[in-house]
Amino acid sequence: AGHLAPGAAAEPLVAAALLMTRHGDLEGARSLVEWALREKPREAVANDAALCQALLRSLGGDVEAIPLVQELGLTALYRLLDSAEDGDRLPPLATYCGLVLAATGQLIASDGFLSTALRSVRNPVPGGGFAGLLACRADVNLRIGRLDLAEAMSSDAVTASSAAPGDRPLTLAIRARVLLHLGRIEECRGVIAQFERLLDPREDAFAGMWARTVQAELFLLQENVHEAARVYAELIGDTERSGLVLPGMVGWEVTALESLVRAGQIGVAEDLLERQNAAAASSPSLRYAEVVSALGHGLVAEHRGTPAVAEERLRRAAALAEGLPGAFERAATKQLL
């Protein structure tokens, strides 16, 4: 009596790993998932642990794990569509799968995946991640250019998060971003103020990426490029410390580079560029990183007074940007060209 059944410890270990991922401790999450797999859990838990392991590799910038995320993610999704069993792990797993798909430019696939996941969560419960899933789907639709859908979904996500405190920061941050890009600036300020009263962006690594992006873009609207660059420098530091370095999950890198270069923080800009260069070279699926790399090199060359190099790099960035699948990313890039 009092002993766990063989493999039973794996379930709470996977749940804890997912929580640690949200808070930006990828190294700790990896250790827990490896421990869970050593427990030899039942098949469903083992599959979800393997998916979590592939997600951690992908979010950390290992593009070779992305096909595995797609394969295992669909397997988990179809299994959970047939059975409510293990449904508590679906929302965070599906959220991260959707972000990985979006980062590789598969925005329509990401939206479809998140939509199916939302339908499979039959009985959303507090802390179950339903509101967070809905918020992430709103963000994907913003990036696609479906503004009306993004507005409605982000509003519903905030409402749903009132019963799920764990989802509240992410829903507020994404709602603020949607309002910002709808031009509803005062409403955006009000929502991001709610986020700031709730927690520091560093306390929730995922929500913090969206929140810091909004904070920086609000500074840019005030033509306060130095404050925007400060926020982006903090965001870069946070992502490097957490390991959440897969380019394009949120799509903040283009504006970050512009702000850093304009503020004269060339060293920080070049550190970010180094990460984008490596990502672009690692896989043709990371087209966003390729655009960011070309654009960033062009902006740095302009700053250093080498117009011929700048023109060549910026022309390449413009050509590459035409191939981006998201209207959001294309528009953000064209503003700088």
Describe what this molecule looks like in 3D.
By secondary structure, this protein is mainly alpha-helical. The protein has 17 helices and no strands. It has helices at residues 10-22, 26-38, 43-59, 66-82, 90-103, 107-120, 130-144, 147-160, 168-181, 185-198, 205-221, 225-242, 253-262, 266-282, 287-303, 307-321, 327-334. α6 (107-120) packs antiparallel against α7 (130-144). 52% of the residues are buried. The model has no long low-confidence stretch (mean pLDDT 88).
Low-confidence stretches: none
Morphology: globular
Mean pLDDT: 88
- What is the percent of helical residues? over 70%
Tally of helical segments: 17
Taking the alpha carbons of the first and last residues, their distance comes to 68 Å
Report the β-strand fraction as a percent range: under 5%
Structural class: mainly alpha
Biggest β-sheet description:
none
Number of strands: 0
Order of helices and strands: HHHHHHHHHHHHHHHHH
The whole-angstrom Rg is: 20 Å
Short description:
The protein is an all-alpha fold and 337 residues long. Helix content is 73%, strand content 0%.
